[in-house]
Design a protein that fits this description.
Helix content: 25-40%
Shape: globular
Bound molecules: 6-O-phosphono-beta-D-fructofuranose
Strand content: 15-25%
Distance between the termini: 24 Å
Structural class: alpha/beta
């Protein structure tokens, strides 16, 4: 293999550049050229196929900094429709003209879905990333548990649901234990919890903090490091009465309560508390928003103003209960050591898989309680259900203690290998050295896009 293409797809995460860096370092060792395709799958629809040579003379370009968040080659939520055969043929011919013999996509479950039709035309490998930590399997047989039923409204679409599991849950059996980006997102969310706590404590308030993760509660679970009182995850339907009882007990005891909720939490009927809107994500993923506000509404109603007045802690429930979203700060900025290190290994492994002749494979991060972490190649087909669909992983129920509303013992065992040494000395030092640099006050922000733009080349003369 002489030339590989690489792209980043879906929402950005802090470890994308680190994954690209890992791939480029390995490609340099193997004397393979590596072209960065601009703006994810979007690049492939453009007849001019904008791209950047990431390792001219087998040297990494200086703009590629693995400690920087985001992606120097840009990302998008564009989708490759498997039914558009003519378009797929065009894409393949463009890549062939560019001399690309294999493609690495850095992305999540949506990206892996989008790669399936391309994998029938050229060798493709996925290097995982997602702050949601939802690319993977709780155990290898998990895809076989999906069933699908036709939409009762008569529309041609299907609903997918899970049958009961027949596997024993074991941390050593998880496929892709953690995805790059997750650790940094948890760092930011847990810090957010710590910072909100002091306001809740000082002003005798109840805080509801919403974190990302779509229908998976991994980020919410990880915020346990910031010691919220209650964690609500999408995998466990909300028991509002139990929640209110717990809140009352804690509020009586400590005069403040901090609740974390995943953005995808559902009520007893399984309906999302927040609003769901469709996105153009390759996997048809939805965007969720407003769960914390909806929960606040319910709590205002159930606790009532009188409850706070009796305590002399405010004149109304509306005043005492507030919400905050950690939002996109979870997805941005400098990746911490765990994310950088393993993203680079997964990127490097993706190159090896292509060189070994693997197609439609995924480089995965495996964990073993005695041996620690290592990377492996995994067949993408093994992520697919009987109908060919790849589902986002939900957190296994064993990781959560529903009555404590906190991580269970296994949940704690799950988190520790990821986080105990996740922060490097340089991560702390970097903040000390750069945040209050007086130069920041005087100089305008210098965007990586300005530099990379100068390196963009096109498939000439007119593409197509
Ligand atoms: O999948 C990553 C993620 O950050 C989710 O946690 C969140 O729901 C979604 O993307 C937000 O998407 P957008 O950046 O398009 O608003």
């Amino acid at each position: 293999m002489k030339r590989i293409g690489i792209l980043t797809a879906g929402g950005d995460t802090p470890a994308l550049n680190a994954a690209i860096h890992g791939a480029v370092v390995r490609a340099n060792q193997l004397r393979i050229e590596i072209y960065g395709l601009i703006k994810g799958f979007n690049c492939l629809f453009n007849p001019r196929v904008p791209h950047v040579h990431l390792n001219p003379l087998f040297q990494e370009i200086p703009e590629l900094d693995p400690t920087k968040g985001g992606t120097l080659i840009g990302s998008s939520r564009d989708y490759i429709d498997p039914d558009q055969k003519a378009e797929l043929d065009l894409i393949t011919s463009r890549l062939t003209k560019l001399g690309i013999e294999g493609l690495i996509a850095i992305g999540g479950d949506g990206t892996l879905n989008a790669l399936q039709p391309l994998a029938e035309r050229l060798p493709t490998v996925l290097a995982p990333k997602t702050i949601d930590n939802d690319l993977g399997l709780n155990y290898p047989s998990e895809p076989d548990e999906w069933v699908r039923v036709k939409d009762p409204s008569g529309s041609p679409s299907y609903h997918y649901s899970r049958t009961a599991s027949s596997a024993v849950f074991d941390l050593n059996q998880i496929v892709n234990y953690a995805t790059p980006g997750y650790a940094t997102a948890v760092l930011v969310s847990a810090q957010g919890v710590e910072r909100i706590r002091t306001t809740a404590e000082s002003h005798r308030r109840i805080a509801i903090i919403e974190v990302m993760g779509r229908h998976s509660g991994y980020i919410a679970l990880g915020t346990a490091y910031g010691q919220p009182d209650i964690i609500l995850i999408p995998e466990h339907p909300l028991d509002i009465q139990a929640l209110v009882e717990r809140v009352k007990h804690l509020y009586d005891l400590q005069k403040n309560v901090v609740i974390v909720c995943g953005e995808g939490i559902v009520d007893e009927q399984g309906s999302e508390l927040g609003a769901e809107s469709t996105s153009t994500d390759p996997g048809g993923n939805v965007a969720l928003t407003g769960a914390a506000e909806a929960l606040r509404g319910k709590m205002i109603q159930l606790l009532g103003d009188r409850y706070f007045q009796l305590y002399r802690r405010g004149s109304s429930a509306r005043e005492a209960i507030f919400t905050r979203k950690v939002g996109h700060t979870q997805r941005g900025g400098r990746p911490i050591l765990f994310d950088r290190f393993y993203a680079a290994l997964l990127g490097s492994k993706a190159v090896d898989l292509l060189v070994e002749g693997r197609n439609n494979a995924v480089s995965v991060l495996q964990y073993h309680s005695q041996k620690g972490f290592h990377v492996e190649g995994y067949d993408a087909n093994r992520f697919r259900d009987r109908w060919g669909l790849i589902h986002a992983r939900q957190m296994h129920p064993a990781l959560y203690h529903p009555s404590l509303m906190k991580p269970s013992k296994i949940g704690i065992d799950y988190l520790m290998p990821i986080f105990t040494d996740a922060i490097g000395n340089d991560d702390a030092e970097h903040m000390r050295q750069t945040l209050f640099d007086p130069g920041n006050l005087a100089q305008p922000y210098h965007s990586i896009n300005t530099d990379v733009h100068k390196r963009i080349r096109y498939l000439e003369p007119n593409g197509a």
